[in-house]
Amino acid sequence: MINKKTILITGGAGFIGNHLVRRMVKNYPNYQIVNLDKLTYAGNLENLKDVEGYENYHFVKGDVTDEKFIVALFEQYQFDGVIHLAAESHVDRSINSPMEFIFTNIVGTVNLLNAAKKSWGDDYSDKLFYQVSTDEVYGSLGATGLFTEETPYDPRSPYSASKASADHLVRAYYHTYGLPIVISNCSNNYGPYQFPEKLIPLMINNIKHKRPLPIYGDGLYTRDWLWVEDHASAIDSVYHKGNIGETYNIGGNNEWTNIDLVHQLCKVMDELLNRPEGSAARLITFIKDRPGHDKRYAIDASKIKRELGWEPTVQIEEGLRQTAQWYLDNADWMERITSGDYRAYYAEQYG
Ligand code: NAD
Ligand code: TYD
């Protein structure tokens, strides 16, 4: 018998969400995929043009913080599963205005948990609430060590604290009510369709326009980078094969200091733009550090490899080239999203 399911994906018009929605719609024609998104500055339906016409894809515009609306949505669709990505996701914005992060990331998650619990009643068979989270909940590492699933939470920015709160609540619904949940905590993603407030697309856009490349502090902060489609495939694995109540760390085994990563990107951009070697690197400008800047994130992803057979597939050199090429090929997309509000944000953040 064909396994039919109706799955709610929240935040599907955002960066990671659009890659996940595309994968689920195309790979599982027997599933109905409902994409719920508020379409904030970070959500863009243009990202999903290629799946708009699929019969098993449905878009609903709405806000996860709107309790009545969420309950009605669960009544209408009778979801079998929820993959929850909708969030305010940018650390710098969370420093400038935390409240939106509290509403969307915490209250929004609890609304979804309550609606799932109500809709599923006493019958949790074949149901799943999947919370997509970040490695930033674990805090900041020194020069050595890796985040494992047992690392205690120690969030240090309003963004990571709001994600940590949401994760705790998701686990609380598992322990208290038996709600079938799973959580994954992933490292920094990169690839097409990322909003240019985040490091890599911001640098690509600035290199293209010969603007300064703002590096916070000494640039020696370290992140573990993962190709976004590898994250989407990891979410697919966890959704289908993960054990209820468990946490899975997802990472790229791919640590770079910000300054080395930007130098690598500069090299790629000079080649793609046919500019003399060193042109982009000359734009590098060290600026005031981010308050509470986490020194290093690095993931031990051995559990998901051992238990679910998932591994990253794209190496950073190849992924950076593909990403840079995608942004150059999609100049109109970039142009549209960097007009209007983006300019005001950029002026406030970078002066
Ligand atoms: P994003 O900011 O690109 O997209 C977030 C999406 O959520 C947008 O489409 C936005 O419109 C939507 N949204 C925001 N508030 C909403 C609300 N109140 N109701 C409904 N929709 C709302 O974020 P992303 O980078 O795609 O991240 C997606 C998820 O993955 C987040 O939960 C984030 O914490 C997590 N995550 C991201 C990364 C990363 O590197 N980007 C790494 C690990 C985990
Ligand atoms: P970001 O993409 O905001 O992701 P996160 O803070 O969630 O890891 O930033 C990645 C790293 O790059 C982080 O150490 C901050 C740094 N950074 C800069 O140095 N300059 C910038 O303009 C931005 C946006 C980030």
Write the topology of this structure:
Elements: E1 5-10, H1 15-27, E2 31-37, E3 57-61, H2 67-77, E4 81-84, H3 91-96, H4 99-120, E5 128-134, H5 158-177, E6 181-186, E7 188-190, H6 199-208, E8 213-216, E9 222-227, H7 228-241, E10 247-250, E11 255-257, H8 258-272, E12 284-287, H9 302-308, H10 316-329, H11 331-337, H12 341-350
Parallel strand pairs: 1-2, 1-4, 2-3, 4-5, 5-6, 6-10, 7-9, 8-12
Antiparallel strand pairs: 9-11
The protein binds nicotinamide-adenine-dinucleotide and thymidine-5'-diphosphate.
CATH architectural category of the largest domain: 3-Layer(aba) Sandwich
CATH topology of the largest domain: Rossmann fold
Distance between the termini: 59 Å
Our count of domains comes out at 2
Q: On the 0-100 scale, what is the average pLDDT?
A: 97
Q: What string gives the helices and strands in order?
A: EHEEHEHHEHEEHEEHEEHEHHHH
Give Rg in angstroms. 20 Å
Number of helices: 12
Rough outline: globular
**How would you characterize the largest beta sheet?**
7 strands, parallel
**Class by helix and strand content?**
alpha/beta
Low-confidence stretches: none
In the CATH scheme, the class of the largest domain would be Alpha Beta
What's the CATH H-level homologous superfamily of the largest domain?
NAD(P)-binding Rossmann-like Domain
Strand order within the widest beta sheet: 3-2-1-4-5-6-10
| Overall number of strands | 12
